[in-house]
Amino acid sequence: xxxxxxxxxxxxxxxxxxxxxxxxxxxxxxxxxxxxxxxxxxxxxxxxxxxxxxxxxxxxxxxxxxxxxxxxxxxxxxxxxxxxxxxxxxxxxxxxxxxxxxxxxxxxxxxxxxxxxxxxxxxxxxxxxxxxxxxxxxxxxxxxxxxxxxxxxxxxxxxxxxxxxxxxxxxxxxxxxxxxxxxxxxxxxxxxxxxxxxxxxxxxxxxxxxxxxxxxxxxxxxxxxxxxxxxxxxxxxxxxxxxxxxxxxxxxxxxxxxxxxxxxxxxxxxxxxxxxxxxxxxxxxxxxxxxxxxxxxxxxxxxxxxxxxxxxxxxxxxxxxxxxxxxxxxxxxxxxxxxxxxxxxxxxxxxxxxxxxxxxxxxxxxxxxxxxxxxxxxxxxxxxxxxxxxxxxxxxxxxxxxxxxxxxxxxxxxxxxxxxxxxxxxxxxxxxxxxxxxx
Length: 439
Ligand SMILES: Cc1cc2nc3c(=O)[nH]c(=O)nc-3n(C[C@H](O)[C@H](O)[C@H](O)COP(=O)(O)OP(=O)(O)OC[C@H]3O[C@@H](n4cnc5c(N)ncnc54)[C@H](O)[C@@H]3O)c2cc1C
Prior knowledge:
By secondary structure, the chain is of the alpha/beta class. Helices cover 55% and strands 10% of the residues. The protein has 2 domains: 47-117, no CATH class; 125-437, TIM Barrel (Alpha-Beta Barrel), CATH 3.20.20. An 8-stranded parallel β-barrel has the order 1-2-3-4-5-6-7-8, surrounded by 6 helices. The longest helix has 22 residues, at 198-219. Residues 226-227, 258, 260, 262, 287, 289-294, 310-314, 317, 340-343, 346, 365-367, 388, 407, 412-414 line the site of flavin-adenine dinucleotide (FAD).
């Protein structure tokens, strides 16, 4: 039920949202935000074109440069996309008569690379010293997905070690919000993660993680284990719980993990982490997100005839996210809250409740290249924003890029809704209230 108290809360939340939205940094940031939302709106309102573009981007890294146009044609022109037939034929005709295949292939690759660059900080840890970085604290991530061979996993692990060696030592006594951090994708550093053999998988993962944790501790760098698909959740969580309790790691206060609110079990998961942190006597940072593997979870559950672990609707995820925000704040200081979101309603909700509960030791985290306007808006209110900053080449970056494109263009996502030009009041509406309005 939507009570009077909730209505009052929502007025405050709307006012915070207006402040974040209205103080959106320098003009070029606002301009970029405007252009990005228009591109999202225009470029991806055609579902078939969107699907084929993603498929093409997915295969692009495996193509020889001279063949790029050939495959572009197959994916975007031969298929029944929404591009008008006369336009498809005219473009192909012009390219054929002027022998422009190579040039077009080169241009396509260039454009995708430029686009990828918007979301990827740099292609190697070695460049970190040279590139001009803003003063924002970061959590660095080496781009890569599930490793397909032990050699690939070893190489991925090596890159994490290299990154840790390159990063400067964190000064003692630094504000924890400014502490350098690293995010690790566990399926990238260990191939042998089998849900049906949890015990042994946990052991393999812990063996892979130990050297990284040791190295991070010597430099005072924080470590966060990213959360991936649902069937790895138990392995990743158990590995973390046992490992962080080992004598050499038990008292290190800069370890963290992710909880995904689209999981029906997320609130119970938070409860388990709270009890664990009490037992450990040292806080654990929880990055609360909504979850990035929605379609994958649904398809997999359907394929196997299982009940889906994720909610059916965005509204349910949003309601659970807000419940989890409150639970996380109530669990402070055992759990240290970090919130990963670009949604203005979620951001304002978090700021409202952290203020009410007088908690200042919390983090807002956002992805590199996304929602720049809100980052500036928050910073102008004195809130420090940590940027999740991927490092890596185009090839391992493709899956990451596609997840970001999907997020930006998903028609239920906040950024897409905003690109439709909806007014702030409706975008900031409580998910509980949405029930009443049937949205
Ligand atoms: C710093 C940072 C780190 C992150 N780390 C991780 C990580 O380790 N693991 C991970 O999984 N994700 C991670 N994410 C991604 C995150 O889970 C979200 O996918 C992303 O932030 C979009 O959520 P939002 O709140 O910004 O936007 P919103 O537009 O408010 O929410 C979009 C999200 O709502 C949910 N949703 C959308 N439609 C539906 C539907 N029909 N039914 C149910 N739920 C729906 C999905 O989770 C979707 O991603 C991270 C995000 C950030 C910013």
